Amino acid sequence: MKLNLTIQPKLRLNFSPLVWVLLTLMGIAFISAMARYAFGIGAISDLSYSYPWGFWISFDLFTGVVISSGGFLMAGSVYILGIKEFQPLLRPSVLTAFLGYIMVALALLVGPGQPLRIWYMMVHSNLTAVSL
Amino acid sequence: MTKTISRRDFLKLGAASVGALAMGQMLPPKVAQAARAAGTINAEGDGFVHSMCEMCVWRCGLIAKVVDGRVVKLDGNPEHPHSRGNLCPRGQSGLMNTYDPDRVRTPLIRVGKRGEGKFRQASWDEALDLVASKMTAIKNKYGAEAMVFSSTHNLSQPLFENLLYAFGSPNYGTQRSLCFNAMIVANTMTYGMEEPARIYDDKLKYILLTGRNLLEAISTSETHDLIMAIDRGAKVVYLDPRYTKTASKATEWLPIKPGNDLAFHLALLNVIIGEKLYNRSFVEKNTIGFDELKKEVSRYTPEWAAPLTGIPAETIARIAHEFADAAPHALAHNGWRTSNFVNSFHTQRAITILNALMGNWDVVLTEAGGEESGTLGAPAQPAYPRISALRLDGVPWKYPVVPFKIGVFQELRDNIVSGEPYQAHGWFISRQNPIMSLPDRGKTLKAFGKLDFIVTVDIVLNDTAWFSDVVLPEASYLERYDPLMPMGDKVFLRQPVIEPQGEAKSALWIYKQLGARLGLGDYFQYTDEEDYLRQQLAPLGVSLEDVKAKGYAEAPETAHSGESSEKTWNTPSGKIELFSDTLAKVGFSGVPTWDEPPQPDEGQFFLLTGKIATSTQFGTQNNQLLHKYSEEPRLWMNAQTAAELGLATDDWVEVTSEVGQIHTQLLATQAIRPDCVYMTPGYGHLSKGLKTAYGVGANDSAVHVTYTDPISGGQALSQTFVTVKKA
Amino acid sequence: MTEIKHHAYLFDATRCIDCRACMVACSVENNVDMDKTRIWVAGVGIKGTYPDLQRGTMVYHCMHCNHPDCMSACPVGAYTKVEDGPVTYNPDLCIGCRYCMNACPFGVPHFDYDKGIIDGAFIDKCTFCPQRIYNGQEPACVQTCPTDALEYGDRDELIKKAHERIAAHPDRYIDHVYGEFENGGTSYLILSHIPFSALGLPNLPETPVNEVSEKVMEMTIPFALGWGAVLTGVAAGVGLYNKKQEDKAAIAEKAEAVK
Fold first, then answer.
1. Nearest residue on chain B to C28, alpha-carbon basis
2. How do residues B212-221 score in pLDDT, each as one tens digit?
3. B211-215, B473-477, C106-110: lowest mean pLDDT where?
4. What is the CATH code of the structural domain delimited by B605-726?
5. ipTM value for the complex
6. With an 8 Å Cβ cutoff, is A126 touching chain C?
7. Domain ranges across chain A
8. C100: closest chain A residue by CA
9. Digit-coded pLDDT (tens) for B18-27
10. pTM (2 decimals)?
């Protein structure tokens, strides 16, 4: 049988239901972020004078950083301690870690009052600050 | 009950508008030409101007900081005896009254129905011509007396009186019968003066306050004096059915039953006279009527007073002894708003007499400086026309001992409604808000309905302006000149800091313009405000420019009568009258006597009102800065009583009296007697022209019943009984 | 007036009548937004049951600590402690991270929760009215206080004054000047007739917290470099060891192949 090489494959968004759910959540999050830029962070979160960080920080930053710890351990095991058996696990875990940190960075674009000034931390550093 | 205001919810109570303070951002800045001319403001519009506050009647001297033609800060003038460099929260917020976005900027003439708030803008000429023609028409048809004039006493009052007396009307309403008639008439009967000045010095050891919540009804310098006295260790005994802020600082708080201050003071007199604790030599030399007094108070024992007041007899006797021990460095404070019960006049007499018996004259009390200094000049004017008509407020034909200058304002309103002895047809209101200040708001609105023409002079569309036919915009106190104010050995100036917003004008200008159109120009012989002031300053030999720079001029003090030993008082006998023949002659008791106050029935409460630090009567609720920091106005009820009635804080309740009903929210608190409820006065505005104040709180005058004391004409504001139930 | 070496406030809770003149004055002087305040009321409110009642109020704003926690925590160094007392804040550096809000034991800095990206969301707090104190005037809140509950002057003199006042009325005051030593000392000193904790003030040790945290933080970079060196060493060591094992295995293999 001859292969028909001229058939154009139809473009299908063949996502699984879970991906659709996640895409919807991303959409909602994007709208929230826009609302934050327009109306301030008080409009999308329950942060107040008594709770300046609250759940926002614990979820955003801590989960993002915690996910990334797996990547550190993997990379450390493979490259520093030389345990080659973990090599196949390295890529996925480093990817997850990278995504975790991306999430943290995105959170830092929405959380602080002046996200466009985030680079000030590099230039005007206060070296004794615990936040360092 | 612990109520800690954490910062979290602190501002939830007050914030009306979010965003930056709209201070003059809507209107172009125009610094006062006069200040520029005087050099107090430079070419860039920066500088400092000395003037006087008008956020209450204490009139503290202030220094206004002007930047780029805008008032940006007010500070107290250290050289003014009423401020001593401090300003209370209302004084600090004063520039927001001036920059209130709801200011009336042009004369307004009503086009809709009264109360709809539909006005059209008009020029001054049109408005003044209309007012003059209406007033003249009323005069020609019904007589000058059919035109009623009322104003809350202020620095321009002499010119207001010019207008009304020259017009020929006897009907003069002031706010005084809603405030301190009892005190003034009592002092007049006893000492022959309206109100002695109080001396708070290092030696003052004992202060007996009957009401007079000085730490909330702030009179800047006197509030300071009281705190300093407490600081030094003076004992303060404070009578009030509520645990106010003054109660919290007083040495002893007595939660006295309302209406029974009189019983307390009569019992004090009983102990002091009965146990001979009074200053015998002073009494013999300077008073008359001691024997009549002694006979009268002999039956008012502390045991008699205890069940009436709710204060134990031993406490009353002890206080009498303590007061006598501390004398003459002991002060029985008259109070200020003494229009509480019909028997308040006798309470005031008892307090005044208590001071006299202890001989503390010239120690803690002395003659106050007059408000019109004898040394200031005044424009020439012809004599007033003879007025033969009776006054609608019953002075003196119903109230024989009430001074003319004070009158009985609520009676005036009542007789506009009743039409007896004749019907009034017009009302000229200047700087006053009778719809909110008079008890029984419904009746005041009825009075409005009886009138053909109502004109109001005000700076915002307060409730009274809202219901008027013509509104004339007055310049706020930071925008105008007023006649000089003598105080001690100085006379103080109020001068414009900025030019008025829109077309607002000073009262001096308005009265003169109106006077001219009424054919009364001869009574306003000054070309403008500065000319008036120059005429006032002429005898002092000081130029207006010098006064503008400092804010005051030195003036010889009104002569005081000298040492106690040779003192005479301005009474018919020349002495302090413990027994007043004047009162006896017209059929009242010459000495203070017991007058049983009415009691609430089962299920009723005394309705109390009282001042707070962040508002002044009825005119400041629209001030955004004060609104920001004010507590939400609530109905206070004793927590125990509320629990028994099944009510809790934040519940909406219906408060009903025999004249009206209001809805408001409850605050269950420990700080009030179980038989009383309290409302903050001045809320519940009807005018939609007050965008910040409209819809906030409930109106107390809607439920107040009108009761008048026949002797002093004072309204009995605490004698209203209400029921409270869940709405 | 004697020269002021270290600007400070003295607040006497027995004189404060909760009139809020200080707050209105501050709002006007510093053009504070309508939905914010730099001074606020704290305190017991009314305590007890009718008629045995007690009341305590206190107003406070930034304590202008001698060892500010906010300054220590700010990652961009937006806070500075000026030599003569005030703790200043530079809105041009602020990134809005709100760390200072966590760090301040008094809950002083407050944040624009309602500002978007265009207006910019900043921290706000009392600035000690530099436009007034460096021109011979008192701060706005002090100048207007009708009862002299708030006073202003040199810190050492105010501490002396406070102790004198306690000595003159020992039954009235708690024998302690709050802020003299708390958190390393503050420039807002408080006298009170009721326990300070009842006024909402935290019980702080004399050593400021940030002294401890800064000592730890100082070690961060050396620690990071050190640990990096350690890990590099380990990695190198492990690598060498593995290489040796590999070489050994390779030699063994070769020997096997030759056989």
1. B73
2. 999 999 999 9
3. C106-110
4. 2.40.40.20
5. 0.90
6. yes
7. 17-46, 49-132
8. A52
9. 444 444 334 4
10. 0.90
